[in-house]
Protein backbone atom coordinates (compact mmCIF):
# COMPACT_ATOMS: atom_id res chain seq x y z
CA UNK A 1 0.00 0.00 0.00
CA UNK A 2 1.40 3.45 -0.93
CA UNK A 3 1.94 6.22 1.59
CA UNK A 4 -0.98 8.23 0.17
CA UNK A 5 -3.36 5.29 0.58
CA UNK A 6 -2.22 4.86 4.20
CA UNK A 7 -2.95 8.54 4.97
CA UNK A 8 -6.40 8.30 3.37
CA UNK A 9 -7.19 5.12 5.32
CA UNK A 10 -6.20 6.81 8.59
CA UNK A 11 -8.44 9.79 7.89
CA UNK A 12 -11.50 7.61 7.16
CA UNK A 13 -13.99 7.52 10.05
CA UNK A 14 -14.19 4.14 11.71
CA UNK A 15 -17.58 2.57 11.12
CA UNK A 16 -18.93 0.81 14.17
CA UNK A 17 -21.82 -1.67 14.06
CA UNK A 18 -25.05 -0.16 15.28
CA UNK A 19 -26.30 -1.40 18.61
CA UNK A 20 -29.32 -3.57 18.33
CA UNK A 21 -32.43 -1.57 19.11
CA UNK A 22 -34.56 -2.90 21.92
CA UNK A 23 -37.64 -4.72 20.70
CA UNK A 24 -40.77 -2.65 20.72
CA UNK A 25 -43.14 -4.06 23.32
CA UNK A 26 -46.64 -4.82 22.20
CA UNK A 27 -47.87 -3.76 25.63
CA UNK A 28 -48.34 -0.09 26.49
CA UNK A 29 -47.90 0.28 30.25
CA UNK A 30 -47.94 4.10 30.13
CA UNK A 31 -51.56 4.47 29.11
CA UNK A 32 -53.42 7.70 29.67
CA UNK A 33 -56.17 7.89 32.29
CA UNK A 34 -59.06 7.62 29.76
CA UNK A 35 -57.33 4.65 28.11
CA UNK A 36 -56.95 2.89 31.46
CA UNK A 37 -60.63 3.43 32.24
CA UNK A 38 -61.56 2.09 28.82
CA UNK A 39 -59.38 -1.01 29.36
CA UNK A 40 -61.00 -1.64 32.77
CA UNK A 41 -64.49 -1.34 31.33
CA UNK A 42 -63.52 -3.73 28.55
CA UNK A 43 -62.46 -6.30 31.18
CA UNK A 44 -65.74 -5.80 33.05
CA UNK A 45 -67.76 -6.31 29.87
CA UNK A 46 -65.85 -9.46 28.94
CA UNK A 47 -66.29 -10.92 32.40
CA UNK A 48 -70.03 -10.14 32.40
CA UNK A 49 -70.91 -11.85 29.12
CA UNK A 50 -71.15 -15.42 30.45
CA UNK A 51 -73.03 -14.75 33.73
CA UNK A 52 -75.51 -12.39 32.03
CA UNK A 53 -76.20 -14.96 29.33
CA UNK A 54 -76.81 -17.65 31.96
CA UNK A 55 -79.14 -15.35 33.96
CA UNK A 56 -81.20 -14.42 30.89
CA UNK A 57 -81.64 -18.04 29.80
CA UNK A 58 -82.39 -19.05 33.40
CA UNK A 59 -85.11 -16.39 33.71
CA UNK A 60 -86.66 -17.34 30.36
CA UNK A 61 -86.79 -21.09 31.09
CA UNK A 62 -88.09 -20.44 34.62
CA UNK A 63 -90.82 -18.09 33.42
CA UNK A 64 -91.93 -20.61 30.79
CA UNK A 65 -92.22 -23.30 33.47
CA UNK A 66 -89.57 -25.56 31.94
CA UNK A 67 -88.01 -25.96 35.41
CA UNK A 68 -89.95 -26.17 38.67
CA UNK A 69 -89.75 -22.95 40.68
CA UNK A 70 -89.47 -24.97 43.89
CA UNK A 71 -86.33 -26.70 42.66
CA UNK A 72 -84.84 -23.76 40.74
CA UNK A 73 -86.45 -20.36 41.35
CA UNK A 74 -85.95 -17.63 38.76
CA UNK A 75 -83.33 -14.88 39.25
CA UNK A 76 -86.18 -12.42 39.82
CA UNK A 77 -87.58 -14.58 42.65
CA UNK A 78 -84.12 -14.78 44.21
CA UNK A 79 -83.74 -11.00 43.95
CA UNK A 80 -87.16 -10.54 45.57
CA UNK A 81 -86.16 -12.82 48.48
CA UNK A 82 -82.89 -10.89 48.87
CA UNK A 83 -84.75 -7.56 48.89
CA UNK A 84 -87.25 -8.76 51.52
CA UNK A 85 -84.46 -10.01 53.80
CA UNK A 86 -82.55 -6.76 53.33
CA UNK A 87 -85.54 -4.54 54.13
CA UNK A 88 -86.42 -6.56 57.24
CA UNK A 89 -82.83 -6.26 58.55
CA UNK A 90 -82.54 -10.03 58.98
CA UNK A 91 -79.93 -10.37 56.26
CA UNK A 92 -77.58 -7.81 57.80
CA UNK A 93 -77.76 -9.57 61.17
CA UNK A 94 -76.82 -12.96 59.70
CA UNK A 95 -74.07 -11.59 57.44
CA UNK A 96 -72.50 -9.62 60.29
CA UNK A 97 -72.19 -12.63 62.60
CA UNK A 98 -70.85 -14.83 59.77
CA UNK A 99 -68.17 -12.31 58.80
CA UNK A 100 -67.17 -11.95 62.46
CA UNK A 101 -66.79 -15.72 62.87
CA UNK A 102 -64.82 -16.08 59.63
CA UNK A 103 -62.53 -13.13 60.45
CA UNK A 104 -61.70 -14.31 63.99
CA UNK A 105 -61.16 -17.91 62.88
CA UNK A 106 -59.01 -16.81 59.96
CA UNK A 107 -56.87 -14.50 62.11
CA UNK A 108 -56.22 -17.25 64.65
CA UNK A 109 -55.59 -20.06 62.17
CA UNK A 110 -53.76 -17.93 59.60
CA UNK A 111 -51.44 -16.36 62.20
CA UNK A 112 -50.53 -19.75 63.62
CA UNK A 113 -50.06 -21.19 60.13
CA UNK A 114 -47.72 -18.35 59.16
CA UNK A 115 -45.72 -18.66 62.39
CA UNK A 116 -45.35 -22.44 62.21
CA UNK A 117 -44.55 -22.27 58.48
CA UNK A 118 -41.73 -19.82 59.18
CA UNK A 119 -40.32 -21.94 62.00
CA UNK A 120 -40.52 -25.20 60.03
CA UNK A 121 -39.03 -23.57 56.93
CA UNK A 122 -36.14 -21.94 58.76
CA UNK A 123 -35.16 -24.66 61.23
CA UNK A 124 -34.59 -28.26 60.13
CA UNK A 125 -34.95 -29.69 63.65
CA UNK A 126 -38.31 -27.95 64.10
CA UNK A 127 -39.44 -29.43 60.77
CA UNK A 128 -38.46 -32.95 61.83
CA UNK A 129 -40.36 -32.54 65.12
CA UNK A 130 -43.54 -30.75 64.03
CA UNK A 131 -44.15 -31.31 60.31
CA UNK A 132 -45.07 -35.06 60.39
CA UNK A 133 -47.84 -34.42 62.93
CA UNK A 134 -49.12 -31.35 61.06
CA UNK A 135 -49.25 -33.24 57.75
CA UNK A 136 -51.22 -36.02 59.41
CA UNK A 137 -53.76 -33.56 60.86
CA UNK A 138 -54.02 -31.78 57.50
CA UNK A 139 -55.60 -34.83 55.89
CA UNK A 140 -58.51 -34.97 58.37
CA UNK A 141 -61.67 -33.56 56.72
CA UNK A 142 -63.79 -30.89 58.39
CA UNK A 143 -66.85 -33.13 58.52
CA UNK A 144 -64.90 -35.91 60.23
CA UNK A 145 -63.68 -33.73 63.07
CA UNK A 146 -66.90 -31.72 63.54
CA UNK A 147 -68.61 -34.28 65.90
CA UNK A 148 -65.50 -34.28 68.08
CA UNK A 149 -65.52 -30.48 68.31
CA UNK A 150 -69.19 -30.59 69.33
CA UNK A 151 -68.43 -33.14 72.08
CA UNK A 152 -65.46 -31.14 73.37
CA UNK A 153 -66.67 -27.54 73.02
CA UNK A 154 -70.45 -27.78 72.47
CA UNK A 155 -72.45 -25.71 69.98
CA UNK A 156 -71.11 -22.33 71.13
CA UNK A 157 -69.04 -19.75 69.28
CA UNK A 158 -65.75 -21.24 70.43
CA UNK A 159 -66.22 -24.51 68.55
CA UNK A 160 -67.24 -22.67 65.36
CA UNK A 161 -64.28 -20.29 65.45
CA UNK A 162 -61.93 -23.18 66.22
CA UNK A 163 -63.23 -25.17 63.24
CA UNK A 164 -62.67 -22.20 60.93
CA UNK A 165 -59.19 -21.66 62.38
CA UNK A 166 -58.35 -25.31 61.78
CA UNK A 167 -59.13 -24.92 58.08
CA UNK A 168 -57.31 -21.59 57.70
CA UNK A 169 -54.13 -22.91 59.36
CA UNK A 170 -52.93 -25.46 56.79
CA UNK A 171 -52.82 -23.51 53.46
CA UNK A 172 -50.72 -20.72 54.98
CA UNK A 173 -48.53 -23.24 56.79
CA UNK A 174 -47.79 -25.26 53.63
CA UNK A 175 -47.27 -22.28 51.31
CA UNK A 176 -45.03 -20.44 53.79
CA UNK A 177 -42.93 -23.56 54.25
CA UNK A 178 -42.63 -24.09 50.48
CA UNK A 179 -41.86 -20.43 49.87
CA UNK A 180 -38.94 -20.46 52.32
CA UNK A 181 -37.54 -23.74 51.02
CA UNK A 182 -37.69 -22.44 47.42
CA UNK A 183 -35.41 -19.50 48.23
CA UNK A 184 -32.20 -19.77 46.19
CA UNK A 185 -29.36 -20.97 48.45
CA UNK A 186 -26.92 -18.65 46.65
CA UNK A 187 -28.71 -15.70 48.23
CA UNK A 188 -27.68 -16.98 51.64
CA UNK A 189 -24.05 -17.06 50.46
CA UNK A 190 -24.40 -13.41 49.49
CA UNK A 191 -25.96 -12.65 52.89
CA UNK A 192 -23.00 -14.28 54.66
CA UNK A 193 -20.56 -12.23 52.58
CA UNK A 194 -22.46 -9.07 53.53
CA UNK A 195 -22.40 -10.26 57.18
CA UNK A 196 -26.18 -10.12 57.61
CA UNK A 197 -27.46 -11.08 61.03
CA UNK A 198 -30.02 -13.90 61.31
CA UNK A 199 -32.82 -11.36 61.78
CA UNK A 200 -31.68 -9.36 58.76
CA UNK A 201 -31.51 -12.53 56.64
CA UNK A 202 -35.13 -13.32 57.51
CA UNK A 203 -36.50 -9.79 56.98
CA UNK A 204 -34.40 -8.73 53.98
CA UNK A 205 -33.94 -12.05 52.19
CA UNK A 206 -36.22 -14.92 53.21
CA UNK A 207 -39.56 -13.13 53.59
CA UNK A 208 -39.36 -11.07 50.35
CA UNK A 209 -38.35 -14.18 48.37
CA UNK A 210 -41.13 -16.28 49.96
CA UNK A 211 -43.76 -13.54 49.65
CA UNK A 212 -45.44 -14.88 46.46
CA UNK A 213 -46.09 -18.23 48.15
CA UNK A 214 -47.22 -16.58 51.39
CA UNK A 215 -49.77 -14.43 49.55
CA UNK A 216 -51.00 -17.49 47.66
CA UNK A 217 -51.40 -19.26 51.01
CA UNK A 218 -53.32 -16.21 52.26
CA UNK A 219 -55.81 -16.49 49.38
CA UNK A 220 -56.24 -20.21 49.91
CA UNK A 221 -56.68 -19.76 53.67
CA UNK A 222 -59.47 -17.23 53.17
CA UNK A 223 -61.25 -19.65 50.83
CA UNK A 224 -60.94 -22.55 53.27
CA UNK A 225 -62.07 -20.30 56.13
CA UNK A 226 -65.34 -19.68 54.26
CA UNK A 227 -65.76 -23.44 53.75
CA UNK A 228 -65.15 -23.98 57.44
CA UNK A 229 -67.72 -21.30 58.23
CA UNK A 230 -70.38 -23.16 56.23
CA UNK A 231 -69.65 -26.41 58.06
CA UNK A 232 -69.55 -24.63 61.43
CA UNK A 233 -72.89 -22.89 60.95
CA UNK A 234 -74.62 -25.94 59.53
CA UNK A 235 -73.54 -28.13 62.45
CA UNK A 236 -75.72 -26.19 64.87
CA UNK A 237 -76.38 -22.47 64.99
CA UNK A 238 -79.17 -19.98 65.67
CA UNK A 239 -77.79 -17.19 63.49
CA UNK A 240 -75.47 -16.68 60.55
CA UNK A 241 -75.75 -17.23 56.81
CA UNK A 242 -75.34 -21.01 57.23
CA UNK A 243 -78.26 -21.06 59.66
CA UNK A 244 -80.29 -18.96 57.19
CA UNK A 245 -79.69 -21.57 54.48
CA UNK A 246 -80.52 -24.49 56.79
CA UNK A 247 -83.70 -22.86 58.07
CA UNK A 248 -84.86 -22.02 54.52
CA UNK A 249 -84.21 -25.60 53.39
CA UNK A 250 -86.47 -26.99 56.10
CA UNK A 251 -89.34 -24.82 54.83
CA UNK A 252 -88.53 -25.41 51.11
CA UNK A 253 -87.71 -21.71 50.59
CA UNK A 254 -85.27 -22.37 47.77
CA UNK A 255 -84.93 -18.70 46.82
CA UNK A 256 -83.55 -17.88 50.29
CA UNK A 257 -81.14 -20.83 50.00
CA UNK A 258 -79.82 -19.27 46.80
CA UNK A 259 -79.52 -15.90 48.56
CA UNK A 260 -77.30 -17.48 51.23
CA UNK A 261 -75.15 -19.26 48.63
CA UNK A 262 -74.70 -16.03 46.65
CA UNK A 263 -73.71 -14.14 49.81
CA UNK A 264 -70.98 -16.70 50.48
CA UNK A 265 -69.86 -16.41 46.85
CA UNK A 266 -69.73 -12.61 46.71
CA UNK A 267 -68.14 -12.06 50.12
CA UNK A 268 -65.56 -14.76 49.36
CA UNK A 269 -64.79 -13.19 45.98
CA UNK A 270 -64.51 -9.75 47.58
CA UNK A 271 -61.98 -10.94 50.17
CA UNK A 272 -60.01 -12.76 47.45
CA UNK A 273 -59.95 -9.57 45.34
CA UNK A 274 -58.54 -7.61 48.29
CA UNK A 275 -55.65 -10.07 48.56
CA UNK A 276 -55.04 -9.80 44.79
CA UNK A 277 -54.81 -6.00 45.13
CA UNK A 278 -52.30 -6.55 47.93
CA UNK A 279 -50.35 -8.91 45.64
CA UNK A 280 -50.13 -6.26 42.92
CA UNK A 281 -48.77 -3.70 45.37
CA UNK A 282 -46.24 -5.97 47.09
CA UNK A 283 -45.10 -7.94 44.02
CA UNK A 284 -44.51 -5.11 41.53
CA UNK A 285 -40.93 -6.33 41.10
CA UNK A 286 -42.05 -9.71 39.75
CA UNK A 287 -42.01 -10.08 35.95
CA UNK A 288 -44.55 -12.82 35.31
CA UNK A 289 -46.55 -14.11 32.37
CA UNK A 290 -49.94 -12.39 32.04
CA UNK A 291 -51.49 -14.62 29.37
From TrEMBL:
Keywords: Cell membrane, Membrane, Transmembrane, Transmembrane helix, Transport. SUPFAM superfamilies: MetI-like. It holds the Pfam family BPD_transp_1. InterPro entries: MetI-like (IPR000515), MetI-like_sf (IPR035906). Coiled coil: none annotated. PROSITE patterns: ABC_TM1. It is a multi-pass membrane protein. Belongs to the binding-protein-dependent transport system permease family. This is ABC transporter permease. The lineage of its organism: Bacteria, Bacillati, Bacillota, Bacilli, Bacillales.
Amino acid sequence: MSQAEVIVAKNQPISRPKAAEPPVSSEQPNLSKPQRKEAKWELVVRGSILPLTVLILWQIFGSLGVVSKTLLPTPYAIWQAFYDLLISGELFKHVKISIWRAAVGFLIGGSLGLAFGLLVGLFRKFEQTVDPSVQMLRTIPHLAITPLFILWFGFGEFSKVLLIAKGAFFPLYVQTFLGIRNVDSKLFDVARVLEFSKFKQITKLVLPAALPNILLGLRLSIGVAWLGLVVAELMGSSEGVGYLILDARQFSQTAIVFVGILIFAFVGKGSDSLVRILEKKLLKWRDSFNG
